[in-house]
Amino acid sequence: MRITAAISWMAALGIVAAAGCRSTSQPFVAREAPHSLTERVAQVGEIVSEPIAVEPVVFDDTATAESPIDSSIPAPPDAQLLAPQTSLTGPARERLATPQADNTSTAPSAELIVTSVRNHFPLVQQAIAGRVVASGQALSASGAFDHKLDAFSQSQPLDFYENYRHSVGIKRDTYWGGQTFAGYRVGRGDFEPWYLERETNRGGEFKAGFLAPLIRDRVIDANRAELWQAQWERTRVEAEIDMALIDSVREGLIAYWEWVAAGANLRVADAVLQLGLDRADFLSKEVKEGQKARIDLVDNQRIIVSRQAKQIDARRKVEQTAAKLSLFLRTQAGQPIVLSADALPADFPAIEKLDQSVAGPDIAYAQSRRPELAELRVIRRQLGIALSQANNETWADVDGGILVGQDAGEPTSSKRDKSEFELEATVTLSVPLERRKALGKIREIRGKMAQLNAKSRFATDKIGAEVAFSRAALIAAGERVGQTTEGLRLAEQMLSAERVLYEEGQSTLFNLNIREQQAAEAAAERVSAQLDYYVALAGYGASLGFATTLNTALVASLPAEDAGDDRVEERIEPAGQLVAPGQ
């Protein structure tokens, strides 16, 4: 009866060992440190008491396939982890229409370029693939808590002592820092008198037990530190994706507006060339009638040749900017599209001047939205975990364990010394004396935290400077567009008056050519101002953390803080910096 009860109890222990740390109500879970460990709990950064289920991770070789890791392993402390998405996230998640990139018969819009970049640009896809890398790291780190099957078989058939030993067992490192195990072994034959513990009853021996840390490794250990850092890495990758997307969209918009500007300059070159060609017919008629000198025909032909050369150069710039734009404009299959000059839009969109009186909280908005600061906050969390583990290494390694065993079957000796129920309790102690490795690691991490704090301050200031810089450029470019538009109107008015005088014989071809050049230069200057405006607008949107097109109405309505749900920062629960006391 006693043997039956013991076997039943050991079977229950075996189930516990197989389950490992799946139960969150384990007696050794570090829910609250005793009073004697208060300072130690502070050193490890106030690790959360209740474990949180880890969200699904992408493990496949694509960024959309998902496979959950063991839900029994809680998330890192103070964490609200970012679940992987099948689409882009963060400040870049403003939804746009699906691009019809194959259709080049109509002029593509800036929104089409943005959508193409978001869906097909290789550098963005490269950043998104970082999710797979990060999820693989998390999966690898969670492997420290895998069940491990141990078995061996040893036979000694030729010897004075002939015996056979076999065993099989399972063990697992637990999330609370200890280890559970259960197994079965059998030992038969003749054993040396000093190895009689290897012998078992005929039915073999069942064993189970656990080992738990009492001081060091209770709240954090190397396995948990690696897992928590890997889980935070998944959140950091999302900020990295947002940064790649913001930069790529800005570059794509700049390439688009450069292409539009090259087309506008080509139209100016075509128009001024056409003036010379139209005048050639007029001069031929005037020369025949004796109203104009033949030298005017030669001079006009020189003007035409010069303008044809400028037209060729303008066409070259259109082709070059179209080739550059093809890096960002792609088909659904991801192939670059080189647009022809026929696809050029008629002109730049209307300029919307930015209200200078509405300076708005754009700097605070950008500092709350930009993913660079979100990434630095995640890195600070990772360093805090490393610092907690380094502090943990300075403590004494005191472990306690319990082992139970019970032989089954017919006794192997008349003494029945193998039939009694076994219970062992052990305590082990290992104390680092100099602790130079742990102390050196603490000093190193504190230095890295100091570097990170300085980097965060500079990044915050830099974002503010970028917003102010791009805003000033946008305002100045908008004013410059107005001035160059007025300058073009005046130049065209002077050209019209000069043409009338020339046709009436009161002016010369030289003066008319100068007026035409002035009008062409005014038109080119206006195109340059329009390009500067839209480049500044793209830069301003990027400085605010947008990965889409921007308009002044949206700028005027910016809130003091970003209230959107797409920011990486919002998915990081606010918490104090993990530091040691007295830092």
Number of strands: 6
Q: What is the spatial order of strands in the main beta sheet?
A: 1-2-3-4-5-6
How would you state the average pLDDT, rounded? 77
Name the beta content range.
Answer: 5-15%
What is the makeup of the main sheet?
6 strands, antiparallel
Series of H and E elements: HHHHHEEEEHHHHEEHHH
What oligomeric arrangement do these chains adopt? single chain
Structural class: alpha+beta
Q: List low-confidence stretches.
A: 1-73, 79-105, 560-583
- Number of helical regions: 12
Helix content: 40-55%
Tell me briefly what this model is.
Helices cover 50% and strands 10% of the residues.
Describe this structure in words.
Residues 1-73, 79-105 and 560-583 have low confidence and may be disordered. The protein is built from twelve helices and six strands. The chain is elongated, with a radius of gyration of 38 Å. It has helices at 2-19, 38-43, 110-120, 122-128, 130-142, 222-288, 295-325, 362-369, 371-392, 436-503, 509-544, 552-556; strands at residues 147-156, 163-173, 179-189, 205-213, 397-407, 422-430. By secondary structure, it is α+β, with helices and mostly antiparallel strands. A hairpin with a 6-residue loop joins strand 1 and strand 2 (163-173). The chain has a six-stranded antiparallel β-sheet, covered by helices on one side.
